[in-house]
Specification:
- There is one protein chain.
- This protein is of the alpha/beta class and about 400 residues long.
- The chain contains eleven helices and 14 strands.
- It has helices at about 30-40, 50-55, 60-70, 130-145, 155-160, 165-170, 175-195, 240-260, 270-275, 280-285, 295-305, and strands spanning about 20-25, 45, 75-85, 115, 120, 150-155, 200-205, 225, 265-270, 310-315, 355, 360-365, 365-370, 375-380.
- The strands form three sheets. It has an eight-stranded parallel sheet. A four-stranded antiparallel sheet has the order 11-12-13-14, with helices on one face. A two-stranded antiparallel ribbon has the order 4-5.
- Strand 11 and strand 12 (about 360-365) form a beta hairpin.
- Helix 4 packs parallel to helix 7.
């Protein structure tokens, strides 16, 4: 894995405060308050379904939202979402596939289209050059033809590369799985060349510990990786501490990627701690007391700071859906909120993280971090607490 040589099209980055990322979707058009909030983030991914109810499709909704964000902050980097395997039918060009049923993966036993997610969505057969060409053209045209779109976010790479997903869950043969994986490699290599020529970003959901090398070798195709599920137990070697061992492996992979100059967009959910903090009450409260989530927030910030390098960004979330339900409630308590920790002075790291067992420590100019991944807790001593000691 090599570092990118040209950073002039990368997102803005500063160590002054926590560098932030946001990953979001809303079926109707964003309102002015939404756009003002979004424009404060240096790196933004507009998820599938963005604006489709207002503008008719995800591509039109994403372009419109990106234009409006750029009006408020020309330096914000906005990414357009595409899934490389699942045919989410939220795009204007999906009707073209009605005449190409042979472009989808078939169950090896029945010969029928494989469908996932409650049977609603088919899977692209990436082993076919025609499918690769169609996918590449549709994705890169939106990105390269629109100055408001700064890059492409590619999802579901893990499903393609996972040792068993295609054979066990999609029920294709081993030979077909290999052909699909080879097609994926050819696609991503081609896309990286196109986007690099246009100085557009290429990010992917690619680092995951259940892959043999955690996805590191595939990072050559991308400017960086989105990170999710880093805390979920995977193929960890020690049964007694499976979650901690898996997280340890994930930290090492993300550190390697970040230190090589790759963009890291780390997403961490509020998790079960949100339920323990009267989550539903907080959702209704515009002045929600996030101190109830302090343990989880501190752990998330600590975990991020252990891996963070230049071009690393953090997104703490309770899901990416910011639609409003029939009662007028937003599906997210984090939407339009800014935690006080976001504005704490951070400063540059004074060195890499140090590790002893499951405990990591690291110092920045204005904060000291101690992270215990086995106990799932972190101590953060900010510059205003100089007399305090790390526990």
């Amino acid at each position: 894995m090599s570092a990118a040589n040209d950073y002039d099209y990368y997102p803005e980055f500063s160590w002054d405060t926590l560098p932030l990322y946001i990953h979001i979707r809303k079926r109707i058009a964003f309102e002015d308050e939404d756009l003002e909030y979004l424009s404060k983030f240096p790196l933004i991914t507009l998820e599938k379904t963005t604006g489709m109810r207002t503008y008719g499709c995800t591509c039109a909704g994403s372009i419109k939202a990106a234009e409006q964000i750029k009006e408020r902050n020309p330096n914000a980097k906005v990414l357009y979402y595409r899934n490389c395997l699942i045919n989410y039918t939220f795009y204007s060009f999906d009707k073209e596939l009605d005449e190409h049923d042979d472009w989808f993966l078939k169950d090896k036993d029945t010969g029928e289209n494989i469908k996932v997610l409650a049977g609603d969505y088919k899977l692209y057969d990436l082993s076919q050059p025609e499918v690769q060409e169609w996918w590449i053209n549709k994705a890169t045209k939106v990105v390269c033809d629109n100055s408001s779109i700064d890059g492409l976010f590619v999802d579901a790479n893990i499903k393609v590369l996972d040792p068993v997903y295609l054979t066990r869950h999609a029920n294709v043969s081993e030979s077909k799985k290999t052909q699909v994986q080879n097609g994926w490699n050819e696609m991503m290599d081609t896309i990286q060349g196109i986007l690099k020529e246009h100085k557009k970003l290429h990010l992917a959901n690619i680092i995951r510990t259940r892959l043999g090398d955690s996805g590191i070798s595939s990072l050559n195709y991308f400017d960086g990786s989105y990170i999710e599920n880093i805390e979920l137990p995977g193929a960890a070697p020690t049964q007694g501490n499976r979650a901690a061992d898996n997280l340890e492996k994930g930290i090492a992979a993300v550190q390697q990627a970040a230190q090589s100059g790759k963009i890291i967009a780390m997403t961490l959910g509020l998790g079960e701690s949100a339920e323990e903090a009267d989550y539903d009450d907080m959702r209704n409260d515009a002045e929600a007391d996030f101190t109830k989530l302090k343990t989880r927030i501190d752990f998330s910030i600590g975990l991020f700071l252990i891996i963070a390098e230049k071009y690393s960004y953090l997104n703490m979330h309770d899901g990416y859906d910011v639609n409003v339900d029939r009662t007028g409630q937003c599906n997210s308590i984090m939407w339009l909120k800014r935690l006080p920790e976001y504005d704490q002075p951070l400063g540059k790291p004074l060195g890499p993280a140090e590790k002893e067992g499951y405990i990591y420590t690291r110092e920045f100019e204005h904060v000291r971090v101690k992270l215990d991944i086995k106990e799932q807790k972190a101590d953060l001593i900010w510059s205003g607490d100089k007399n305090e000691e790390l526990n």
